[in-house]
Amino acid sequence: MPLESRVLSALLEHYVIVAAVAGVVYTAILVAHRLLFSPLAKFPGPKIAAVTSWYEFYHDYFRRGKYVFKIKEMHDRYGPIVRITPHELSIHDPEFYNSINVSGSVRKTDNYEGFARGIDFDGTHFLSTSHDLHRRRRKPLEPFFSRAGVTRLEPMVGEVAKRFVRRLDSYQGTDQVIRLDHAYVALAADVVGKICFESNSNMIDEPNFGVEWYNLLHNFIHSLPLVMAFPQMIKCVCSWTTVLNLTFTRILNIIPSEVLRWLDPRLVTFEKFRDYARQHIIDAKRELEEKNDYETFETRNSVFRHLLTSGLPESDLSVERLTREAQIFLGAGSISAARTLDFISYYIIANDDYLKRLHVELAPLMEGYPKILPSFVELERLPFLQALIKEGLRLSYGVMHRMPRVSPDQPIFYRDWVIPPGVAVGMSAYMNHTDPDIYPDPFTFNPERWLNNVTPAMTRCLVPFSKGSRNCLGMK
Ligand code: HEM
User: What 3-state class would DSSP assign to 406?
Assistant: First the structure.
């Protein structure tokens, strides 16, 4: 037998050993590359974080979202810039936040592909990786969510708010406890549902405030570290389950409601919203086709009717893509707004003085209630209300997770460091908002700080909606 054949058969006989050796060699090369040769090798930070993303996964999945605190510890130890995963840096320097999160006129900003991969929202503006594609998809949405756009929505928001107050009033004199976190998700979802698809869904009046939607969103968030760490696994499970390469939401699309209801009642809420959105988009498209005339096609208060006439290319107007956009709005719009309202309400209820001051400040504007509602402009002029809102936004943080940004073609200069193009850099609103040099006694809810001696740094570093070209669209 020739020598090569003998070597080959020996190798085959010992394929386990060969595989193990190959694994060890591969790992050694990977570790060496990450520690010594990667463009991030020169940045400080713990070696374990530089070598493997499992470190983040452990803290975020098993310790339920605690990596952000670990990152803070790294900054305390290694300084304002640290390497937190093999592919990402974190900067903790509130004054630099606005230099990372920039508008398109300063620099392009790509989404970091590793962020939110695996969740099946590809094609939405939110997860569009390249700066230019994100701009193209986001630009037509901006007028709808601009100050003028939001002012047009005021009467609708007012009606939903009145319904909400009626529902809370109905508890008067009963001993029942209201879960405000559930109630506010219902309020926000009813508003966003109307904006997205003129929905008549009425979670506010559901006996449990439509808690299924609340649970679905929270479970989804808890599963994010798993889905993001193993996007291929999720796809694999899906393809194995369906033989085809269908992802989670696509699977949901083909399961009949009865089966879904039986599998998990929460998924029905998801399905209900998706169906509302899809039907609304189909109807609007049909109407536009029949009219064939942008002039008489009313965009009304629906973001999707508005999008259809916005000049987006046909490829971006498919029912599937727009339905996913609707899901992004519902998720992004309901949970963060509700969280901020929870915070503020809790502190108002827990503090008699806040409650009294708010009553006094609001009384003149509420004289005509429920016939006449105060306007956005009038409410903006109330200093104590605004201070409560700012402090609520500061301590509810918006999104606690770092929002990694990538400069695709220009290096970023930070102090003596040069961050090469293509590297993801994350900064966290949590770290900004709890920096004691900017907000003394940072973990105390203190609206007073927004009434006297407000420093420019306090305003600059308050970033609950993020900043720059990828900031929150629903901020107004
Ligand atoms: C207190 C309320 C809210 C807070 C604190 C908040 C916070 C945020 C933050 C921090 C981001 C940036 C995510 C990133 O950096 O990638 C974001 C994005 C976004 N938010 Fe909000 N949000 C709120 C309410 C809303 C509402 C009511 C809507 C919709 C009606 C909305 C829609 C969006 C959308 C569509 C994006 C993605 C923007 C893009 O990628 O271009 N948000 N939000």
Answer: strand
3-state secondary structure of 89: strand
Report, as an integer, the average pLDDT of 436-444.
97
Question: Is the CB of residue 193 less than 8 Å from the CB of residue 35?
Answer: no
Domain that holds residue 239: 138-350
Going by their DSSP bridges, the two strands 110-111 and 405-406 should be labelled as antiparallel
Q: Average pLDDT of 257-286?
A: 70
Q: What is the pLDDT of residue 145?
A: 92
Ligand 1 pocket, CB under 6 A: 125-126, 138, 192, 328-329, 332-333, 336-337, 340, 398-399, 403, 464-466, 470-474
For residues 156-173, give the mean pLDDT: 95
- Under 8 Å between Cβ of 241 and 254: no
Within-domain flag for 258: yes
The residue whose C-alpha atom lies closest to atom 32 belonging to ligand 1 is 474
Structure confidence at residue 221 (pLDDT) = 80
Give, for ligand 1, the residue of 100, 428, 472 to mutate: max count of ligand atoms closer than 8 Å to Cβ: 472
Whether the link from the prior residue into 442 is cis, omega within 30° of 0, is no
Whether residue 318 is contained in a domain is answered as yes
Identify the bridge partners of residue 83 per DSSP, sorted by sequence position. Answer: 89
Give the distance (Å) from ligand 1 centre to CA of residue 436.
Answer: 26
Which residue of 126, 137, 336 sits with most ligand 1 atoms within 8 Å of its CB, as the best mutation to test the pocket? 336
In a domain, 63, yes or no: no
Q: What is the pLDDT of residues 198-210, one digit of tens each?
A: 777 789 999 999 8
Closest-CA residue to 331 (of 287, 273, 292, 244): 273
Q: 261 pLDDT exceeds 90? A: no
**CA of 44 relative to ligand 1 center, distance in Å:** 31
Residue nearest to atom 2 of ligand 1 (CA): 337
Which of 195, 389, 475 to mutate for ligand 1's pocket (most ligand atoms within 8 Å of CB)? 475
User: Considering its fold, how many domains does the chain have in total?
Assistant: 1
Q: How far is the C-alpha of 328 from the C-alpha of 181, rounded, in Å?
A: 20
Please give the number of the atom of ligand 1 that sits closest to the Cα of 191.
Answer: 30
CA of 189 to the centre of ligand 1 (A): 14
Mean pLDDT over 245-256 rounds to 52
Ligand 1 nearest-atom number relative to CA 464: 5
- Distance from residue 474's CA to the centre of ligand 1 (Å): 6
Separation CA 462–CA 97 (nearest Å): 10
Question: Looking at residues 408-437, what average pLDDT do you find?
Answer: 97
Question: Given this model, what pLDDT does residue 245 score?
Answer: 40
For the cut 90, the answer to whether the pLDDT of residue 416 exceeds it is yes
Nearest residue to 186 via CA among 216, 211, 220, 163: 211
Query: Is residue 449, in this structure, part of any structural domain at all?
Result: no
Radius of gyration of the chain (CA): 25
pLDDT, position 198: 78
